[in-house]
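LAB NOTEBOOK - FOLDING QUEUE
OPERATOR: T.R.
BATCH SIZE: 2
PURPOSE: Compare the predicted structure-token outputs for two unrelated chains run back to back under identical settings.
PRIORITY: normal
REVIEWER: second-year student, initials M.K.

ITEM 1
FIELD SEQUENCE / FIELD STRUCTURE:
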Amino acid sequence: MTGKDSENADELPLKLAMRVQLVFPDGDFEDIDVTQLGPDSYRLEETPVFTEWVGRFDVFEAERSGEGRLRFLRIVEHSPFEMHSYVLSREIVETGEFESFIEAVVRDGGRWERMMGSILTLYLPKTSALNPREVIQAIQDKLAAGKPV
């Protein structure tokens, strides 16, 4: 489901993720990667597509409900990141400026993922000074003006 993804191993505990079916209180569910942190404690390792109950890097409590299945109970700790999502054209993501921007996100301690080719989700530390909307708009403006990017 996810494309390229950056990881800063020194910031998050290194444990192996496992694929589970995470079932939410409203009955909806999603097959998604989680890392078990304790007996009933897990961290979500990818962005859920079909739910807003929990977000990537949130730590949550869940109980086992059969093989490979967890029943979501509550969020224990919200992600240390601020999430930004954009739908971008192929033209934008193939520019050198976009690649430089993604490198800046990683240098700033952030993470990123692309889904389905054009959906970009950024996870920036809450203290980050990066302004993704501004950078993406500048790239769009240069492309529209026919300037090299």
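ITEM 2
FIELD SEQUENCE / FIELD STRUCTURE:
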Amino acid sequence: MRKKVLLSMGLVAGLIATVLALASCAPTTTDGTSTSSSASSTQSFLVMIGFIVLLFVMMYFLTIRPQRKRQQEHTKMMQSIQRGDRVITIGGLYGTVENVTEDSITIKVESGTTMRFIKSAIASKVTEETAEVK
């Protein structure tokens, strides 16, 4: 996760540097003189706008889209929780679901204590694969 953030920050910094470098360059003719200022400023402006659009597209695919996908998967998991499922809370508490209501879940921990949590406090279900890793 941290690598993705660093990668996206590096890409953003690279794009900004490229935009600044391109904006400061003025196209020249074959004899070395500058072209008209209005044509070069329009061209620089269009290049800059293009890079800004590219920047937003990259940020969408690197940050917003994966976060939405994780959120949809979590919502689907929350809707599928039922009595008897083993879950992990966001605080790291393992337990078995005893009761599910519209806005809360009651879980029973190993000591026999029952605790009530809001649904958003459930981080994940414990599956056979998750249990084997531990």
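REVIEWER COMMENT (ITEM 2): The chain has three helices and five strands.
FOLLOW-UP: none requested
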